[in-house]
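Thread: "does anyone have the structure for this chain?"

Original post by V.I.:
We have the sequence but no experimental structure in hand. Need at least a predicted one for the grant figures.
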Amino acid sequence: MPVFPMLTRNGAAETDAYPHAASLTQGRPRVGVMFVKKFRNLNADPKFKVKVTGVKKLVSSSRVSLAAPILAHLLRICIQVTAPGVTVFEIKKGLRLHDNPSLREALDGASSFRCVYILDPWFTDVSQVGINRWRFLLQCLEDLDSSLRKLNSRLYVVRGQPVDVFPKLFKEWNINVLSFEEDPEPFGRSRDSAISALAQDIGVKMIVRISHTLYDLKKIISENDGTPPLTFKRFQSVLSRLDPPAKPEDRITLDTICQCKTPILLAHDDKYGIPSLDDLGFDTSGLSSNVFRGGESEALQRLQGHLERKYTAPRLNVSFERRVSRLGAAGDRTSDLWIVKPVCYH
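Reply from O.Q.:
Generated one for you, tokens below.
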């Protein structure tokens, strides 16, 4: 069976069999496919140049009409290769730009970038999640969108099941890299496995890194003979045999993004904006002010405030009182040995 070269973004040529192409070329003289050379330099960026190697003489020059589907297929490949793809980072639990290894790695070498948060319809049901939790989450998303604005980007909020949303986004945005934080929970692992399978089927590169926990939970369980450690002492013993956690990643800045651009629509807020509590169906008429505001900026301010505090010895007016047992008199040494204890007042 004749084999057509598959063109890839890294310039290498892989091979894949096309039964339709085989049916068109079988039994016909093989001639050169010269048109492919014309598409080598569609994009001036050398990163996206099409490097064609080992193109076989598969198309019959005498039957151009029959070869048209083959030419069209190769043309689509050339255009797809030369067009810069989009890097997408899915926000999950790590609603932050600092210390985010999967985000930093996704931005490395990217030319177009979008940060996405998927609103699962199950969680948007007001009967599943309370209003205070939703308010905290929306404040986190608003703060993240504000931080992305300073980087000439925006947060894309998309509603739907992730396994249904991403196949559409793969085609609509021409995604070539998908990155997210590894989810340690069973439900999240199952969902992420399904998304990774969909991405790999169409050649989308996956970047998944651990940042929700300091240590890889799978390594901890593996080091403990396949079972989770049930005591803190055992947990410390397992950690002593593992490598120390990686150092925190730096915050994402304009220098980090560099030439990476985010295409923003004029109707971005209408299509990808952050919903309000009213949009989610909550009654906010009697909602009181929240004590702890959500968001990375608020969290960093609180952390900095704690770090700036210096230890001072407590100022206590300490006095000691001898407790007397009801079983003996005040001077009874037996009662002294039984219940004498200092009590601090301040």
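V.I.: this helps a lot. The beta strands are 3-7, 13-17, 86-91, 113-119, 155-159, 175-181, 205-209.
O.Q.: and The two ends are 90 Å apart (CA to CA).
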